[in-house]
Design brief:
Elements: E1 11-20, E2 31-42, H1 45-58, E3 62-71, H2 72-77, H3 84-96, E4 99-108
Antiparallel strand pairs: 1-2, 1-3, 2-4
């Protein structure tokens, strides 16, 4: 009798991560840090954040702050426009149980504080 595979509880979360400088981080020489858009799989957002921070630390970066924007369905319900390329990367993160950096924007000089109004 063949066993049925349980449906995965994994989902993909959209995260924005702010990183600071660290020796060997691969950021441009004059950058003071960077913002990353990340798609990360997890059974909940907390797990996706933990996995993302762990992967970024292994990659010799210095994660400072993580903001979660929810799953694809949650973002669509909020009216976010999500293109096919972005959805493809989300599906890849789910298929590979991975953390995927979709975009990186270096900061130069000073950048806004996380809690600035």
């Amino acid at each position: 009798m063949a066993q049925q595979k349980k449906p995965s509880r994994q989902q993909v979360y959209t995260l924005v991560v702010q990183i600071g400088r660290k020796e060997g981080d691969g950021l441009p020489e004059k950058a003071t840090g960077a913002g990353l858009v990340v798609f990360a799989s997890g059974i909940d957002e907390a797990e996706a954040v933990r996995e993302t921070v762990a992967v970024l630390k292994q990659a010799d970066t210095a994660p400072l702050d993580v903001t979660g924007y929810g799953t694809l369905d949650e973002r669509l319900a909020e009216g976010h426009e999500i293109g096919a390329d972005e959805q493809d990367l989300m599906q890849r993160a789910l298929n590979e149980n991975a953390v995927i950096i979709a975009q990186m924007e270096p900061f130069y000089g000073t950048h806004p504080e996380v809690d600035a109004d």
